[in-house]
Design brief:
359 residues, single chain, EpsG family protein, 0% strand, 20 helices, mainly alpha, EpsG-like, membrane
């Protein structure tokens, strides 16, 4: 756990400085991206799917029989690196850099300037949930946020292209195509309350199976259908889902005027809204709810910097930040210590191997 505790404390300290001073250090941001990608790329037997990705890269075959049909971007990048005689670490490093730069770009487009804090929240809440698999799932999620940011500035064609790029890393991105065209619209209060009430009705009365049977897209893609045909139930109403709902209502009600006027702000809030609705409605299918949550709930990495940045008193900002750090640490610690079927965490201990990256 030493590596993860040091990582948390490192970003906690530097994020605290940016929260108090309201000034970002762009050199530190770039250095953080490079260093974080380094630890992702050069890990050794860390992460649930680490061996699968290494085997895939070295063998030239996709990790499952259908990914070659549905994930061309990932395959093309792999082929380029492989035939340039790069070792798998450099391949992972390149994609990790790409992933983190997409997040940084999305934040800048959405006018969320404190990237140090954005990255800190991302590490605590999402980085380990990807089980260090920033290679595919993380790349897909970050590409989707580029798509959302393009929708926020009225570039719908670019948003659609970035959604296809995201699908090139993970096919489940196809499910977000309707979301891309819905998030820039202002929603009336009546619509918001009705949709949330319906989603929680579906959750409480376990109507998810009836709902999903009316989604023809799932029958088109075998891999998407695979996320549904699982005899697994979700976790019901959790503390995290309740908190997300509360945060959404705070942003929606507190800044209602800005919500209707500021398109970029509205997109961030709307993505969180759809995260609440979709994760509640599809809770019966834990896999697909988790996948959707990874993408849509990433709005929190932008929401928290917005909330902290709008507090004028330095003492209040600092106090709220420290309280949030307790929550983030609990979330981070839980993510690191998720146990596999053997009762062990695939992330602990963290191991690193540095060798020649060009064969």
């Amino acid at each position: 756990m030493l590596f993860y505790n040091v990582l948390f404390l490192f970003f906690l300290v530097f994020s605290f400085v940016t929260v108090i001073t309201r000034k970002s250090n762009h050199r530190f941001e770039v250095l953080s991206i490079l260093v974080l990608a380094f630890f992702v790329a050069f890990r050794d037997r860390v992460g649930a799917d680490w061996s699968n990705y290494v085997e895939y890269y070295q063998s030239g075959y996709a990790p499952d029989k259908l990914s070659g049909n549905y994930e061309p971007v990932f395959m093309v990048l792999r082929d380029i690196c492989y035939y340039l005689h790069f070792d798998y670490e450099l391949f992972f490093y390149i994609i990790s850099i790409f992933t983190l730069l997409c997040i940084r770009y999305s934040g800048r487009v959405l006018n969320v300037d404190n990237f140090t804090l954005v990255l800190f929240v991302y590490i605590c809440m999402f980085f380990c949930n990807f089980q260090f698999n920033i290679v595919r799932s993380g790349a897909m999620a970050s590409c989707m946020w580029v798509a959302f940011s393009q929708a926020a500035i009225g570039r719908q064609r670019c948003a659609f292209i970035w959604t296809l790029i995201a699908a090139g890393f993970h096919i489940i991105a196809i499910l977000f195509i309707p979301i891309v065209y819905l998030i820039e619209r202002p929603y009336k209060q009546k619509f918001v309350f009705i949709l949330i009430a319906l989603s929680y009705t579906i959750l409480i009365f376990k109507l998810g199976h009836q709902l999903i049977s009316h989604v023809p897209m799932l029958a088109t893609f075998d891999r998407l259908d695979g996320y549904i045909d699982k005899d697994v139930d979700g976790n019901g109403i959790t503390l995290g889902s309740a908190l997300n709902l509360a945060i959404f209502f705070y942003m929606y009600m507190k800044y209602k005027k800005e919500y209707y006027v500021n398109r970029k702000f509205r997109v961030i809030v709307n993505v969180l809204f759809w995260g609440v609705v979709i994760c509640s409605s599809l809770n019966a299918f834990s896999t697909i709810a988790t996948r959707a949550g990874h993408v849509l709930n990433m709005s929190l990495i932008f929401v928290w910097p917005i909330i902290l940045g709008r507090l004028n008193k330095k003492s209040i900002r600092g106090a709220l930040y420290l309280v949030l750090c307790v929550y983030w640490f609990m979330y981070f610690n839980k993510s690191v210590n998720v146990e596999d079927i053997f009762g062990q965490s695939s992330l602990v201990p963290y191991q690193i191997e540095i060798k020649s990256i060009v064969r």
